[in-house]
């Protein structure tokens, strides 16, 4: 197998507060290979966006990377200075966020923003940059790219704006794209356009994509592998089909089961009891054990299981096999 | 079972013109946005009627007109046979009004942050002049929270718990109809499951009727007894969930179902739908969907199809029932 | 399923809140609160603290005039902590009594401006339409005049209408109304702005839905949610009102000589500044400065502490 584009190793992000140290990301490790889409799912507060922000060095103070390593194409980037990191961002890592307006300067025509980025990162002439900008808009499916290159962000619809952001993220030809809830603010029909665009670009360019979302359907259709996060830790990591059809972590099982899609034809949805614990009030042992239907003594006592210490796919001392899955029970 | 809500030719036009001084100086005409246009449907007692549509489809505007937060520009809303907009008998208005409640999308904005949970829940009963002794405690337990939560403030609860508080409040005036405007779209999947289950249970227990407004087809499919699909302010198709999801008649419904992500759609290559929703200020002529419709014929651009009974569904399309995909 | 027995008390919760924490960790907030409290308490308990009653002619001795601070008077041998003024009044006592007038006028004027501004702001924001246009245009027009001019105008007009024998007793009330009327605009603008935001929130729609009257919605739902910016403005306004009162009194259109405020004391003192009797001006001026600065710093800190964007 080729070298992974992104390697995250035992990443821990800390937020010091006056009530103690919070760990929104706690010991997360994963790789993304070229041409692969890794879906990161989890509920709000699970730490999925924080993982992405740590990779691009966009953690809001006082959050900080406490330990672990982030490697981009084999080079360590978590200990770089802000100035060095800025070179990586944009050049090697593209970013797409939920709200396209936050990534675009409302006062500049989109063409200027594109050519500026291309010139800065690729060092080509102005005319060449302009041509590449038109090509980039064309590639993301903006109709009449040549004419629309002088338009301002507000002149585009939400879906078109997100395409412009993707063009902007990709124009410097990065090897990694981090997309944080890129379709959450969009309508179903436009969402399908954007995810199919992402898939196509990833395949054509051999780019690695980290797709952060809460939408299980989007993950199923788009991602190759999926990482399920719970309370800052990886609960399960594996090929998307296997994780969704035969989850091994009871949390994944509950999560998949509680989507209306999975309970087709049933009067009640499967539900996970209780709420996700707040970061400051995590239980001892496995963070999921108070809500888990299969809890045993070891789950309460032994410090949180990790993928490595368990079976490599689910961070659970007693991973489920297919027959146990609760989805059929409801 | 009787009809609890009857909506006839409901229309709502918003004036989105610039202030008159700008209009005079810049010589701009008045601009009108037709958010809802000629929508008619009925809701049977103790069922869930769902309105589904993308942004700009007018689904929330319909909800607001039904509960009386917005007056219709044209057409009527009758609840239990009473049109609140024209009814003059204060007693009747009072009675019908207390039969309607609403649950909103954002559980963070729909609870007054300065009020205690107990007061929030009891407010509808207080407004009716009903007794409130122990009411909030009872309702809190009914929605799965603790009676001692009455003294807490909304910020002490998570999103899902807040939505439960909203449900408890909606129940306080013992309503018959609850309009739910995207009640779970701000919630996480596992919390959504809890809230949807709670709503189903309460419907059975109290014989409630829901008007369920959502853009999420999977939630609609799970909850609804009857579904109305809206596009650009018009009802394009109405059918039971089984019929709608098995044999969608309108090309827009077909497109919507095809585009929705599926849990079993691993690596599915969808042909993404063409185009985006048009500007509601200048909607296309004829059928509003024709510029994006794979089945469009010349007639679609000039003539607007009316909603007609077609097998078990009501559809507004000249080529209803044909499949493009 | 929280256990009521383990619920922390309200006081404990308050002391543990972010707000209390920010207060405890901010020296500026602590010091300015301490200074404000000290001065306010001193003013309230002036009759108990002050060694002499400067308004009681019986306790005055003209021979004590112009005694320098903490130096025995050359005629009577009496000594005064901060010296005496031209009429032999103890400066320390006059400051304590003067502060009472200043603070009373300040608080009353801000309260008046608040009530007026909040009501008009709420109505303008919630009702909208022509009502809003009229209220806010009046506010805009008033903003184009310096507030001290507005206050002077009002005092002048009021003086013209009051019979001479009531002028002194009415002076304080006129002062309060004048400062309050020149200050309501910023309350109205802020409250209107917040009301426009709040009235579109779903909790207000939920209240409208069940048929609550506009009055109930404004008073019970919107008002509690627009108060935190009002608190900030009120604090800063208090400092400004104290200064405005001092300015008016200094100009001779404010507090009458029979009820001297800090501003009146400064006016009296400035006549003697160049003849060597500096203390008559200096100590009231320093007190005014300390009071206005402490209240202002407190207001600034409140604004930062209550601003969710800076959290």
- Percent of residues of chain A in beta strands? 15-25%
**Percent of sequence in beta strands of chain B:** 15-25%
Uncertain ranges of chain B: none
Mean pLDDT of chain B: 90
Main β-sheet of chain B, in a few words? 8 strands, mixed
**Helix coverage percent of chain B:** 25-40%
Q: What is the class of chain B in the CATH system?
A: Alpha Beta
- For the record, the count of structural domains of chain B works out to 1
In terms of structural class, how would the helical and strand content of chain B be classed? alpha/beta
Q: How many runs of DSSP E, i.e. beta strands of chain A?
A: 10
- Number of H- or I-type helical stretches of chain A: 12
Oligomer: heterotrimer
Largest sheet: spatial strand order of chain B: 5-6-7-3-8-9-11-10
Instruction: Pick out the low-confidence regions of chain A.
Output: 326-330
Estimated radius of gyration of chain B: 21 Å
How are the strands of the largest sheet of chain A arranged?
A: 6-7-8-3-9-10
Rg of Cα set of chain A: 21 Å
By CATH, the superfamily of chain B comes out as P-loop containing nucleotide triphosphate hydrolases
Indicate the structural class of chain A. alpha/beta
How far apart the termini of chain B lie comes to 38 Å
Annotation keywords:
heterotrimer; A: 330 residues; alpha/beta; six-stranded mixed β-sheet; four-stranded antiparallel β-sheet; 21% strand; disordered C terminus; B: 325 residues; Rossmann fold; eight-stranded mixed β-sheet; three-stranded antiparallel β-sheet; globular
Quick overview of this protein structure:
The complex is a heterotrimer of chains A (330), B (325) and C (311). Chain B is an alpha/beta fold and 325 residues long.
Structural commentary:
The complex is a heterotrimer of chains A (330), B (325) and C (311). Chain A has a domain at 248-328. Chain A is built from 12 helices and 10 strands. Chain A has helices at 48-55, 82-91, 100-103, 110-122, 126-139, 145-148, 158-170, 188-205, 216-222, 240-245, 250-257, 297-301; strands at residues 6-17, 20-32, 37-41, 64-72, 75-76, 93-96, 176-180, 208-212, 225-230, 233-239. In chain A, the strands form 2 sheets. A 6-stranded mixed β-sheet of chain A has the order 6-7-8-3-9-10, with helices on both faces. A 4-stranded antiparallel β-sheet of chain A has the order 2-1-4-5. In chain A, β7 (176-180), α8 and β8 (208-212) form a beta-alpha-beta unit. In chain A, α5 packs across α7 (158-170). Chain A is globular and about 65 Å long. Chain B is an alpha/beta fold and 325 residues long. An 8-stranded mixed β-sheet of chain B has the order 5-6-7-3-8-9-11-10, with helices on both faces. Chain B has a 3-stranded antiparallel β-sheet with strand order 2-1-4, covered by helices on one side. The radius of gyration of chain C is 24 Å and the shape is globular. Chain C has one domain: MetI-like (MetI-like fold). The chains are: A alpha/beta (330), B alpha/beta (325), C mainly alpha (311). The interface between A and B is large, with 44 and 40 residues.
């Amino acid at each position: 197998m080729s070298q992974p584009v992104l390697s995250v190793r035992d990443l821990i992000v800390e937020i010091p507060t006056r009530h103690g140290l919070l760990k929104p990301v706690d010991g997360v490790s994963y790789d993304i290979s070229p041409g692969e889409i890794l879906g990161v799912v989890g509920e709000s507060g699970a730490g999925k966006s924080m993982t992405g922000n740590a990779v691009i060095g966009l953690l809001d103070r006082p959050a900080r990377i406490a330990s672990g390593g982030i490697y981009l194409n084999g080079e360590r980037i978590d200990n770089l200075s802000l100035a060095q990191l800025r070179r990586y961002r944009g050049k090697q890592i593209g970013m797409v966020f939920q709200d396209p307006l936050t990534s675009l300067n409302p006062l500049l025509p989109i063409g200027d923003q594109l050519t500026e980025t291309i010139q800065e990162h690729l060092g080509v002439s102005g005319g060449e940059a302009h041509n590449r900008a038109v090509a980039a808009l064309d590639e993301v499916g903006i109709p009449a790219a040549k004419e629309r290159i002088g338009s301002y962000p507000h002149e585009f619809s939400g879906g078109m704006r997100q395409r412009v952001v993707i063009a902007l993220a990709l124009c410097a030809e990065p090897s990694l794209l981090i997309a944080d809830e890129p379709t959450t603010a969009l309508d179903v029909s436009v969402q399908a356009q954007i995810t199919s665009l992402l898939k196509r670009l990833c395949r054509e360019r051999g780019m690695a994509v980290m797709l952060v979302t809460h939408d299980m359907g989007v993950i199923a259709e788009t991602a190759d592998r999926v990482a399920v996060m719970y309370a800052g830790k990886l609960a399960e990591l594996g090929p998307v089909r296997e994780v969704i059809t035969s989850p091994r972590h009871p949390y994944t099982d509950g999560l998949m089961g509680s989507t209306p899609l999975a309970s087709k034809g049933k009067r009640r949805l499967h539900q996970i009891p209780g709420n996700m614990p707040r970061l400051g009030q995590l239980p001892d042992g496995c963070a999921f054990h108070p809500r888990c239907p299969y809890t045993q003594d070891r789950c309460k006592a032994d410090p949180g299981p990790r993928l490595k210490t368990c079976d490599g796919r689910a961070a659970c001392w007693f991973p489920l096999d297919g027959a146990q899955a609760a989805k059929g029970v409801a | 079972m009787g009809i609890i809500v009857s909506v006839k030719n409901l229309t709502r036009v918003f004036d989105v013109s610039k202030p008159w001084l700008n209009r005079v100086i810049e010589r701009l005409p008045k601009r009108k946005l037709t958010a809802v246009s000629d929508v008619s449907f009925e809701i049977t007692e103790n069922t869930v009627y769902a309105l589904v549509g993308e942004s700009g489809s007018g689904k929330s505007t319909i909800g607001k007109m039904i509960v009386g937060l917005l007056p219709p520009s044209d057409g009527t809303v009758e609840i239990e046979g009473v049109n609140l907009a024209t009814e003059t008998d204060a007693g009747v208005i009072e009675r019908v009004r207390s039969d309607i409640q609403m649950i909103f999308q954002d559980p963070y904005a729909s609870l007054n942050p300065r009020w205690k949970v107990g007061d929030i829940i009891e407010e509808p009963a207080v407004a009716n002049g009903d007794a409130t002794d122990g009411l909030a405690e009872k309702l809190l337990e009914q929605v799965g929270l603790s009676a001692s939560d009455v003294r807490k403030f909304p910020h002490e609860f998570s999103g899902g718990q807040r939505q439960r508080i909203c449900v408890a409040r909606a129940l306080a005036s013992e309503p018959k109809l609850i309009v739910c405007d995207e009640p779970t779209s701000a919630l996480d999947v596992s919390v959504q499951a809890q809230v949807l289950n709670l709503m189903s249970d309460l419907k059975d227990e109290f014989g409630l009727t829901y008007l369920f407004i959502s853009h999420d087809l999977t939630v609609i499919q799970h909850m609804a007894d009857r579904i109305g699909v809206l596009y650009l302010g018009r009802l394009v198709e109405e059918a039971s969930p089984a019929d709608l999801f098995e044999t969608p008649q309108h090309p827009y419904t077909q497109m919507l179902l095809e585009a929705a992500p599926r849990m079993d759609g691993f690596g599915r290559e969808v042909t993404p739908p063409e185009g985006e929703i048009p500007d509601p200020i200048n909607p296309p002529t004829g059928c509003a969907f024709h510029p994006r419709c794979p089945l469009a014929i010349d007639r679609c651009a000039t003539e607007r199809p009316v909603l007609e009974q077609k097998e078990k569904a009501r559809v507004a399309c000249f080529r209803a029932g044909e499949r493009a995909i | 399923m929280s256990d009521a027995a383990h619920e922390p008390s309200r006081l404990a919760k308050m002391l543990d809140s972010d707000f209390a924490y920010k207060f405890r960790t901010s020296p500026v907030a602590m010091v300015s609160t301490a200074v404000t409290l000290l001065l306010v308490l001193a003013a309230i308990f002036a009759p108990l603290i002050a060694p002499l009653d400067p308004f009681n002619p019986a306790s005055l001795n003209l021979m004590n005039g112009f005694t320098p601070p903490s130096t025995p008077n050359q005629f009577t041998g009496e000594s005064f902590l901060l010296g005496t003024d031209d009429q032999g009044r103890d400066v320390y006592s006059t400051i304590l009594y003067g502060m009472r007038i200043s603070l009373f006028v300040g608080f009353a004027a801000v309260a008046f401006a608040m009530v007026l501004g909040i009501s008009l702001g709420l109505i303008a924001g919630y009702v909208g339409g022509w009502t809003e246009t009229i209220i806010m245009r009046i506010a805009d027009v008033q903003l184009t005049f310096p507030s001290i001019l507005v206050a002077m105008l009002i005092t002048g007009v009021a003086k013209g209408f009051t019979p001479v024998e009531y002028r002194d007793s009415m002076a304080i009330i006129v002062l309060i109304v004048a400062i309050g009327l020149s200050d309501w605009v910023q309350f109205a603008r802020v409250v209107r702005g917040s009301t426009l935001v709040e009235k579109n929130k779903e909790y207000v729609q939920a209240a409208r839905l069940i048929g609550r009257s506009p009055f109930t919605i404004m008073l019970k739902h919107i008002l509690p949610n627009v108060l935190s910016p009002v608190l900030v403005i009120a604090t800063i306004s208090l400092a400004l009102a104290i200064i405005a009162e001092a300015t008016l009194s200094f100009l001779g259109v404010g507090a009458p000589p029979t009820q001297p405020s800090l501003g009146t004391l400064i006016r009296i003192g400035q006549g003697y500044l160049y003849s060597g009797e500096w203390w008559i001006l200096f100590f009231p001026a320093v007190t005014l400065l300390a009071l206005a600065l402490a209240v202002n710093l407190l207001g600034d800190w409140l604004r930062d502490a209550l601003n969710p964007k800076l959290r």
